[in-house]
Write a structure and sequence with these properties.
12 strands, Rossmann fold, 4 helices, elongated, alpha/beta, 208 residues
Length: 208
């Protein structure tokens, strides 16, 4: 199966247009929820496809594919994730993530966690990239002093972190704040763990 990557733009504040443009340059398929289309057009960005019930578009577009899903029991973010998984996309890069309402943001967070079992998820906000990772070996890039945070979603076992200000050596990282706001000491930080799931937050510029 070939590797397929997608950009997904949600109907949140688009403070990261430059990130979207860099991902577009990589040739990724660009999907947006219907509420994000008009915002993208104001930035002179035309996605490949729009998904949702089309209730948030001011003018019906004729310059991209329309994926009409009227189901009101799921929000457009979940519809988009399900569609990308069905279409065998390997990873998705999400912008416009903040929901503007606390309940929306909490639901979106649970969707990130739930669907990360089926697709690699990257979320962008400001100058940061969040990547949900499962047990394995990972390398992240940055400059000395850049922030790296490890946010355990489940008990993560045998966690080792090298190249950061606060090193970890085969520890169990529990959900909580222990891994928050560490810093790069070197240009490369390596992470390994044997069980669990962690959100890693790093500067997007060196990891996109």
């Amino acid at each position: 199966m070939s590797h397929k990557s997608a950009i997904l733009t949600l109907n949140g504040p688009l403070e990261d247009v430059h990130i979207i443009q860099r991902l577009i340059e990589k040739g990724y398929f660009h999907l947006c929820t219907d509420g994000a289309y008009d915002t993208l057009k104001k930035e002179n960005i035309t996605p490949h496809a729009i998904i949702g019930d089309m209730d948030s578009i001011l003018t019906k577009p004729n310059d991209c594919q329309l994926i009409f899903i009227p189901d009101q029991e799921q929000n457009d973010f979940e519809k988009a994730l399900q569609w990308l998984i069905h279409e065998n996309y390997s990873d998705v890069h999400i912008s416009g993530f903040p929901g503007g309402r606390l309940d929306h943001e909490l639901v979106n967070f649970t969707l990130l966690y739930y669907y990360s079992r089926q697709i690699e998820i990257y979320a962008y906000e400001g100058n940061q990239l969040a990547h949900i990772v499962k047990a394995g070996n990972y390398t992240f890039k940055g400059q000395k002093g850049d922030i790296i945070s490890l946010i355990a979603l489940t008990a993560a076992e045998n966690v080792s972190l090298q190249g950061a200000q606060y090193r970890l050596e085969s520890v169990t990282l529990m959900p909580g704040s222990r891994g928050l706001s560490n810093q790069f000491l070197e240009e490369t930080v390596s992470l390994t763990f044997s069980k669990g799931k962690i959100i890693v937050v790093v500067p997007y510029e060196h990891n996109i």
